[in-house]
Design brief:
The complex is a heterodimer of chains A (268) and B (361). Chain A has 11 helices and no strands. With 268 residues, chain A is mainly α. Chain A has one domain: Orthogonal Bundle (MetI-like fold). In chain A, helix 4 crosses helix 6 and helix 6 crosses helix 8. The longest helix of chain A is centred in the C-terminal third of the chain and has 35 residues. Chain B folds into 2 domains: 229 residues, Rossmann fold (3-Layer(aba) Sandwich); 119 residues, OB fold (Dihydrolipoamide Acetyltransferase, E2P) (Beta Barrel). In chain B, helix 2 packs parallel to helix 4. Chain B is elongated. Chain B starts with 6 loop residues before the first strand and ends with a strand. The chains are: A mainly alpha (268), B alpha+beta (361). At the A-B interface, helix 7 and helix 8 of A face strand 6 and helix 2 of B.
Chain lengths: 268, 361
């Protein structure tokens, strides 16, 4: 299709505005993180990386990162397992309560997270569990596992049930079919689901706020520092968190690429 | 084919809830034959083949593979294999890995697997370089061949086919039909094929079963089914056909629907003699109907108005409407094209040797 001159200019303007709207706040936090001053103020007069050095030295920061990482990694792994079997139940098999299951599993996603967090806190209290990072894992899972399930289910919908039947016809047992056919075919969906699970857990604030008890995750600490006693570590940690997430995505992509090229090399 | 059948079905019933898909099927398939089950969609042929390979369980009845009863044996323990309609090639594996899959399940050593896979690629006329190709890099016809190679790698006692050619374009389908027949001859295996296409069935099969509403209307060789269908359903299902409702006349001949009979007593030899007053359906295929000039004679004649002329490639099809409103189809080779304009009054004729009488319908 031919785009006229005016359409093209309009598209450029639109693109620049959208990018600006999305990234300007992030960039300004980036600048704030390399300001020398103790308080957030623009324009920045003196630049320095001292707050990064400070962050890397600080025990508080390493505790925060470790707690957040623990929670996110466990949530990711459990979500992937739950999502794999959940997606098969959701998309692949015909069973009596499937339609009900499909609706019920989506419900937690529509719950406002603050309400869900409070409800879970009350529930933990009433059964006598003391909130800690472990209860936060449970809370995150309630919200994140359904999302992961949905992502894998989309993949499961797109694959031909005849593939599993063909494998069975050629003599494969149920376990072999799962290992040789179902799992490899759902793998791209599982990897995306895992990435989403990690990022959603890593950045989650409302659920963590209610359910971590005495422990604190990175987003919680950032919020606490902003409402009471600003620390220049806030933008620094913000940037570190974004860079970390980005690195994770790159890592996942390169692992995917590696797996593919190994598989092709083996086939060739 | 004097030995015992390789596959025997005895009163096989399949119901889904209150719906009876197969009310009780009996069938014998001989060792080494190419057997095709043809039927319209919803005739139960897909249901039947799923029972035969073990994807679904029979509600009642018995399936015997030689001396072994297999109707309760799960699919992965039956020595049979199916080529699926969608082919069901594993997209995450290479061509070679697909072909080797059944061998890998039997723990055949890698070297031997590879050798067998290359051998099969050869048999299916695929270049050896395809061994490492991805499935997504193969064309429709090549995928067909890969699926066949994989099924043959399994080395099944019976190879089942669930309409694997239906998604291909016409030319490729024609080529593969012939290749499949050729492959059947070369491997000597028993092939059981289901399709809704009569042409496919006629090209490839030793015997054809016509299926309708869960039962077989007729099981016979192609010529028999084409030329001597047992009822209207089979006659109409097997291609273009002209059918006339007829009744026996006092002279031992037959008459009906604008048809004039000039059999002059040889109705007996042509197998169309009828008792006076008995009813039946007279069938003649379009290629046996002739346009008559005023001096020509034929055993049966009828008059009508030429309606249309349609080019079918090598043949021309004509439609002639009789005064009674029946449309008669006539087919001629292109070189025998008739020089008549639409709207012209014509006389059609055909002979007793080319008709078939379906009695009592």
């Amino acid at each position: 299709m031919n785009t006229s001159q005016t359409t093209r200019i309009a598209l450029y303007v639109y693109g620049v505005l959208i990018i600006g709207f999305l990234y300007l706040p992030l960039v300004s936090v980036g600048f704030a993180s390399i300001s020398k001053a103790r308080y957030l103020s623009f324009p920045i007069r003196h630049y320095s990386t001292k707050w990064y050095a400070e962050a890397l030295r600080s025990d508080t920061v390493s505790d925060l990162l470790f707690t957040s990482l623990k929670v996110a990694v466990i949530v990711t792994l459990v979500s992937m397992v739950v999502a794999f079997f959940g997606a098969l139940a959701f998309a692949r098999y015909q069973w009596r309560f499937r339609s009900l299951f499909q609706k019920l599993i989506l419900l937690p996603i529509f719950f406002p997270q603050t309400v869900l967090g409070l409800a879970l806190l009350m529930w933990f209290n009433s059964v006598g569990v003391i909130p800690s990072w472990k209860t936060a894992v449970v809370a995150h899972l309630v919200w994140i596992a359904p999302i992961a399930t949905l992502i894998v289910a989309i993949r499961a919908y797109s694959f031909d049930p005849a593939l599993e039947e063909a494998a069975r016809d050629m003599g494969a047992s149920t376990v072999t079919i799962l290992r040789e056919v179902t799992l490899p075919l759902l793998m791209p969906g599982l990897v995306s689901a895992g990435l989403f699970a990690f990022l959603l857990s890593w950045g989650n604030f409302p659920l963590s706020l209610f359910t971590t008890g005495a422990d604190s995750t990175l987003p919680e600490w950032l919020y606490a520092k902003m409402v009471s006693g600003y620390s220049p570590l806030v933008p620094t940690l913000g940037v570190m968190s974004v860079v970390g997430s980005f690195a994770l995505i790159l890592l996942a992509m390169s692992i995917g690429w590696l797996v593919r090229s190994v598989r092709e090399a083996r086939a060739g | 084919m004097t030995s015992q059948p390789i596959l025997r079905l005895r009163n096989v019933v399949k119901t889904f809830g209150s719906f009876t898909a197969l009310p009780g099927v009996n069938l014998d398939i001989e060792e080494g034959e190419f057997f095709t089950i043809v039927g319209p969609s919803g005739s139960g042929k897909s249901t039947l083949i799923r029972l035969l390979v073990g994807m679904d369980e029979v509600t009642d009845g018995e399936i015997w593979l030689r001396d072994r009863r297999i109707d309760q044996t799960p699919a992965n323990q039956r020595p049979t294999c199916m080529v699926f309609q969608s082919l069901a090639l594993f997209p995450h594996m290479s061509v070679g890995q697909n072909v080797e899959f059944p061998l890998k399940l039997r723990k055949v050593p890698a070297e031997e697997r590879r050798a067998r896979a290359l051998e099969l690629l050869d048999l299916l006329r695929l270049p050896q370089s395809y061994y490492s190709k991805r499935i997504s890099q193969c064309s429709g016809g090549e995928r067909q061949r890969v699926a066949l190679a994989r099924a043959l790698a399994f080395d099944p006692e019976i190879l089942f086919f669930d309409e694997p050619l239906s998604a291909l374009d016409y030319r490729l389908r024609k080529t593969l039909e012939k290749e499949l027949k050729d492959l059947h001859t070369r491997t000597g295996k028993t092939f059981v094929y289901i399709t809704h296409s009569l042409e496919e069935a006629m090209v490839m099969s030793d015997r054809i079963a016509i299926m309708n509403k869960g039962h077989f209307e007729q099981i016979a060789v192609a010529d028999e089914i084409y030329g001597r269908p047992v009822n209207r359903f089979v006659a109409e299902f097997m291609g273009e056909v002209n059918l006339f409702d007829v009744t026996g006349t006092a002279g031992g001949g037959l008459a009906g629907a604008g048809l004039e009979s000039h059999m002059n007593g040889h109705a007996e030899t042509c197998g169309v003699a009828m008792a006076p007053g008995a009813s039946g359906t007279l069938m003649v295929r379009p290629e046996y109907v002739r346009f008559l000039a005023s001096s020509d004679t034929a055993d049966f004649t009828l008059r009508g108005i030429l309606h249309g002329e349609y080019a079918l490639g090598s043949r021309i099809q004509y439609e002639v409407e009789t005064p009674g409103g029946q449309v008669i189809t006539v087919e001629k080779l292109r070189e025998d094209r008739v020089d008549r304009q639409p709207g012209a009054e014509v006389v059609l004729g055909f002979d007793g040797d080319h008709v078939h009488l379906i009695r009592g319908q």
